[in-house]
Amino acid sequence: VTTALERLEVRRSPRAERDVALLDLLDRLLAGGIVVQGEIALAAADIDLVHLNLQLIVGAVDAVGRDLRGPLPQGKR
Amino acid sequence: MSVYLYAICSADAGVPRGVLGLDGAPLRMVRCDPLAALVCNRAAATQAAVDEDVLWEHERVVEALMASHDLLPARFGTELASDGAVADLLRARAGELRAALEYVAGATELGVRAAWIDETEKSETRPADQYFAERIGVHQRVRALADRVEHTLSPLARAHRIRMPSPASAAVSAAFLVARERVEEFVRRTAALDAELAGGHVFCTGPWPPYSFSEERAAIR
User: Fold this and answer.
1) Interface contact A52-B51, CB threshold 8 A
2) Do the Cβ atoms of B76 and B39 come closer than 8 Å?
3) Is the peptide bond prior to B34 cis by the omega test (within 30 degrees of 0)?
4) Are the beta carbons of A42 and B77 separated by less than 8 Å?
5) In this predicted model, what pLDDT tens digit does every residue of B193-206 receive, in sequence order?
6) SS3 sequence, chain B?
7) Degrees to nearest 5, angle at CA B209 with B57 and A38
8) Residue A50 above 60 pLDDT?
9) Which among A37, B100, B150, B179 has the fewest CB atoms less than 10 Å away?
């Protein structure tokens, strides 16, 4: 388990680990949290995000599969 | 101009230091006793592209507040018309938001992912009935893995959600709401389960703000 700042370092870690962390982040930011009725305005509706989202999920699912065949450090983000 | 929402917390929380909001905008608190909302201004004209950095920076702001206060994270991209609209939200949903804050108080979210190591050779061709029998077998094994994760880790958590794997998926994804003082124990137990599992892997990510345990609770009230 790492702190937030350490977790940001994940962007400099190997691609597979980054994707796992990013997939977990996406799961939470886009599907979790408090929803204010009718007020989701900004980014979630952004076409760029939808595009990014799909790319990431496709990439990350594959990366999770790859990663799980090798050792993955506990709590690594 | 509009107001971009990060999280809701108690009114005594201060603005976290060392982090900035969207497009470098200063963070502010909109207070409506006994609740407050962490926000920043957002110029309507700037429609910045959302990329990986924007998502992590959003997360970083929420976690900076989480370091000192219990909070309910907002869904990414939540934007309100004005401070008045934020205050209206805090007032109108005060009861449910306070109940939701109480529910997550002193706890944090840990993500768990688990999968069997895939031993079948994907490129190998075989008869259809054999293929479907294998698919069903894989699905049953993944469900068994989900049960094992739940059985092993849920006693350490205040609440949990297991996303049951779809037939197409070979991986389990779960979220656990864990008291802060039990996080180390939870991580150790996950590592132990990983070591016990022959042919499979389990690992956790976090701690996260309680994204998976905010809205359902708020909606009940």
Assistant:
1) yes
2) no
3) yes
4) yes
5) 999 988 888 888 88
6) CEEEEEEEEECCCCCCCCCCCHHHCCEEEEEECCEEEEEEEECCCCCCCCCHHHHHHHHHHHHHHHCCCCEEEECCCEEECCHHHHHHHHHHCHHHHHHHHHHHCCEEEEEEEEEECCCCCCCCCCCHHHHHHHHHHHHHHHHHHHHHHHHHHHHHCCEEEEECCCCCCCEEEEEEEEEHHHHHHHHHHHHHHHHHCCCEEEEEEEEECCHHHCHHHHHHC
7) 80
8) no
9) A37
CA distance A55 to A20: 13
Q: Hey, are the CB atoms on B204 and A74 less than 8 Å from each other?
A: yes
The tokens for A3 are: 């702190």
Residue in the block written with tokens 């108690």: B10
Q: What is the mean pLDDT of residues A29-39?
A: 77
CA atoms within 13 A on the CB side of B159: 17
What are the structure tokens assigned to B121, written together?
């050779």
CA distance B157 to chain A (A): 16
B177 or B125: which carries more pLDDT confidence? B177
Amino acid at A48: D
DSSP-derived pairing of the beta strands B171-179 and B2-10: unpaired
Q: Are strands B2-10 and B71-73 parallel, antiparallel or unpaired?
A: antiparallel
Model-wide pTM > 0.95? no
Residue B207 preceded by cis peptide, ω within 30: yes
- Would you say the ipTM is above 0.90? no
Query: What count of other Cβ atoms lies within 10 Å of the Cβ of residue B103?
Result: 20
| Contact predicate B62/B4, CB 8 Å | no
Handedness of CA B185, B186, B191, B193 (dihedral sign): positive
Of residues B82, B79, B64, B90, the one with CA closest to residue B8: B90
